[in-house]
Amino acid sequence: xxxxxxxxxxxxxxxxxxxxxxxxxxxxxxxxxxxxxxxxxxxxxxxxxxxxxxxxxxxxxxxxxxxxxxxxxxxxxxxxxxxxxxxxxxxxxxxxxxxxxxxxxxxxxxxxxxxxxxxxxxxxxxxxxxxxxxxxxxxxxxxxxxxxxxxxxxxxxxxxxxxxxxxxxxxxxxxxxxxxxxxxxxxxxxxxxxxxxxxxxxxxxxxxxxxxxxxxxxxxxxxxxxxxxxxxxxxxxxxxxxxxxxxxxxxxxxxxxxxxxxxxxxxxxxxxxxxxxxxxxxxxxxxxxxxxxxxxxxxxxxxxxxxxxxxxxxxxxxxxxxxxxxxxxxxxxxxxxxxxxxxxx
Length: 345
Fold this sequence. Notes:
about 350 residues; alpha/beta; TIM Barrel; two-stranded antiparallel sheet; 12 strands; about 40% helix
């Protein structure tokens, strides 16, 4: 142990920087912390996912995703009005069809649920950015993201269906289409189809780095989209691979993607950072359903402070390099950020 003399000597012989450099000086008050904060989480960073269903006056809470609802078109109208008041700039739409078949016919029906939902969003707020998920899983009777032949997903046969869906979304008024099926060549197929049909100004947000993840469980309940056989590991990415993620992103950009996404978020923040350091394009990450459900469950049990945890988690995604965050927390965060500093511990 140091005696009194040793302690005095150690204090008289400081390190080369201390005490002149004291990192705590700029942490002393909240206003100081805000002034030097490197990463700010803003309402404008958030995109809110919505699940749209057929029917009237439907607002049904999804059991595994508290405070998230299945909404009919009349309820969607009210939801968009609320999101506009909260200053949330963008939504992404997921539809549940009236019926399913082998090719997901309602997916590209001009009167399909998503196509009608796009029109509702734009009637309520023409300026809101409407993104649409372009996939097949919730529309097909087999629950896979592409056409099934002999128990396997036929990549090339799937591409025209995805392209047709994207064109139908653009025709209904979508600003951004987001292919998520993880079919090779899907971005090229969408870009060619959109341009050929006069929608060259519709942007593509590619789910470029979408991993096969256990964090999607609640979403599959919400979208009624679990595969009826096997799993999706033959086309979604292996969670162990980082360099492959960068290659996927590079390929999608070469095919014409305007923006790219890493999905999920929390277990893949290293991929978000790699993508940000490698590519100079708008980058999204998806704070997926399982991540949301874990926070909600812990908060409802009183184990965590929900507000602090959510803001900390979303700030970590922004700090890792995301320009935008798709999150089911968006409405709550918009309420918090409307009257609170971006993040306080």
